[in-house]
Structure formats: C-alpha cells, structure tokens
Amino acid sequence: MHVVIFFTYDYSLKIWSDTGILDRELIYYKKMLDKNNDLQITFVTYGDDDDLDLAINLERIKVIPVYSTIKKNKSKIINFIKSFYIPFLLKDKIKDIDVIKQYQLQGAWISIIYKYLVKKPLIVRTGYDMYSFSIKEKKTILKKYLYKTLTNLSLKKSDIYTVSSQSDYNFLKINFKFDESKLLIRPNWVLEVKNYPIENRSKNKILSIGRLEKQKNYFDLINSFAGSSFEIDIYGEGSEKEKLQNLAEESNVKVNFKGMIDYDHLQTIYKDYAFYISASKYEGNPKTILEAQNSGCIVIVLNEQNSKDIIDTNIDGIIVNKVSDIQKEIDTLIYDDARMNKLSKNAIQRVKENNEIKLLIDLDFKDFDNLISV
Prior knowledge:
By secondary structure, the chain is α/β, with parallel strands linked by helices. Helix content is 44%, strand content 17%. A seven-stranded parallel β-sheet has the order 3-2-1-4-5-6-7. Helix 9 (166-175) links the parallel strand 6 (160-163) and strand 7 (183-185). It is globular and about 65 Å long. The mean pLDDT is 93.
C-alpha cells in the first residue's frame, strides 16, 4: 500500500522542526509503518533541500519538497498561482499510488487536482474547521468566502473528509450540502504515558500551553489571577509575548514564560502539575488538552463548543463560563483530594478510550482499505 501525504500548504519538515513538532508528527507515521510492513509513505512538502536533509534517516518515507524542483517566489500571490502547476509536476514523479491524503484543508486544491490526474481516492483530514475559525476570528468577507469555497469543494471532491470533533461534524452538516456518508470523525491522538498520583504534583503552579496570540486569551487569564499566590507556567511563543509580560508585571502575577520545547520534553512536563488551564475562546480538538488529560492533569477550560466534545464537566475536567471562575474552581479543588483524584483518573480513562494512537491508526487503515477495495 502506497499513501501520498500532501502537507498543509506552505508547510515543510523544516517548519515542523523549527516549531518543535517534527518528532511528534513523525511518531504517528512511524507507528503506521511498524503496523504494516507493506506500507510506503510519500510526503509532498512545501520545503526545499532542507527537507531532504531532515528526511535522511526516515525509513520507507520518501520526501518530495516542492521547492526543490520549482523556485519559490517572494510573492505569496505568485506562489499561489504556481501551486496549480504542482499536481502536474508530481504526476510522473510518484508511482504506484493507492491513496492520497491531504493534511489539513489548506492546500486541498492541489491534492484535488492531483486526484483527478492520477485517478486515485482522496482523504481530506482537518484538525479544525478553517471556515468556522474565520467567522470566529472575524476575518474579512473575502477570506471567509475563500475558506467556505475551499471547504465546499473539498467536501464534494474528496472520497473521505475527516474532522476531529463532533462540533465540526455538526457545523459542516448544517452549513453545506454534500454526501454525508463521506464525513467521518477522527480525533487527535495521544501516546500512552506513565501516570503519577495527583497528590504528588504542584497545586500552586498552573500549566498552560499554546501560542502567545489573542485566540488563546492569555490576557484575561493573567488578569484573573491578579494579586494571587498562584504561579502560571506558559509554554509557547507568539507576537503577544511582550504585552503579556508587561501585563503580568502590572497585575502582580508570577508568570513564567517558558518558550518552546520539543515534544519529548513536553510529555515529561505535565506530570508536575495538578492543573492545566486553557482560556481559549475557541479551539479545534486541542492536542495539549488531550495530552494533559492523558497525563492525569485536572483540565479547566473556558466554555466553548469543542471543549464540550472532550470534557464532561465535573466528571473528567472542569468547564467554566468565565475566565474569572478558574481561580475559584482551583481554590475549591485543592481542599478536596477525593474529587481531584476522581477527575484525574476519569480524564486518563476518557483519553485512553477515545484518543490512544493505536486506535486512530487502526481507523486510518480502515479508511484506506475501504477506499482501495471500492
């Protein structure tokens, strides 16, 4: 079986490496290869020769960086126009294809054209819904129209279209007309990890992970802990860092900006914290929340639709209506060991049943087999 994976448009192995997610993303594909000795994978990336260097030690994964063959222009518009040539460039470069898979919606126009050139089935995989995000982020009318058009095209032209949450599934069914039998839910995965008792973890330090951008709502989170004795450890980088540092100082909140760390190191961090906080106003199927649950953290999140897909409040996590309620919940929990233990154990069990990597790999192979057998 030969599966061709098209990267998100403008993404590359080099970008994965620079942002610290290369090891995490490769884990999934390496485990797929371990499960099936006949599987071959080809990555189509939007990188250059740097991607070939990063791929040297990858077994049974071939990497084709687009910009090793065509020159990347400084103009995004010119690169976009040239992207319609990419499928024709690849038509004779990749042999004996069984399935094509598009990683995220962005770039789907390329894999759709390629599908018709090579006459093979296409899976479009989305981790979050770009059109619904564009509405929440109040993008321009033009951008919202383009995302909606690309979503509509992908729903109609793909053979399978996957979303990571029930909320995204419902959103697409309400807002688009398509063959609903091709729409499937495939949540994000986590690795099995060793768990540590909740009572041995820090209760006065709070963990939060994510880009330092407005979507993550760190401004409200920091303000809500003004003058408290809690410390907040934030892992991530972004354009709002300096403003957040100034706010923390002004609000008398001890915030430790930890920067970026690699995936393996990150997996060892969760066990040190009793509480993981996400104040995001909207999410897809956030991997860091799933990883925190998987590690037995008590996850407290702001009330938004996708969070309800992965947390039953007061059973395996806490959902609050206002950011200002987060500290109140923690103040109550730290004096209730039995409740903390229950939330921690239930979170681990929920992720084990829904998100373990072997479950998602099995579903991937099921999708491949169903398409190939048609």
